[in-house]
Structure formats: C-alpha cells, structure tokens
Amino acid sequence: MKEILVAIFIxxxxxxxxxxxxxxxxxxxxxxxxxxxxxxxxxxMLLFVVGVSIYFASIVVILKAVLxxxxxxxxxxxxxxxxxxxxxKY
Length: 90
Fold this sequence. Notes:
Blueprint: H1 2-26, H2 30-56, H3 59-89
C-alpha cells in the first residue's frame, strides 16, 4: 500500500513538471514563463518530497524534507522576482 501511495505522489509530481515544461515552451513573454516555471515546479517538488518521505519514513528524512520544502517555497519567489526585474531592464 505504501508503494502505491509513493507512486501516486511521484507520478503527480512528474505531471506537474510536465505542465511546467510545456508552459515554458508555449508562453512567449518572460513573465508568463516565470509563472509557469515557479508555480508548478514548486508544487511538483512538494509532491516528490512527500513521496520520498513516505517511502523512507524516517524522522531524519522527514525533517530534511520539511527544510527542503521551506527552502524551495522561500527562495523561488525571490529568484522569480530577480529574474523579472532583470528582464525589465533590457
């Protein structure tokens, strides 16, 4: 049962990454591409990390997963803001 749940999380994460890659290819301007490459991959990484945490089910792995998710959700908007600000200058 645990393996099925892990597979569902990993497959959903892969689906969100595919949506992000498709958005990166389809959108034309920088801000739309930033939206596609920040929203969906952040959620996909959340799904990946939850799947890995369920699979290993260790306190150390879960703690590292929580820290990783916090890092991703704190740094992704900052990186997107920096890229959008740099794209407006040129």
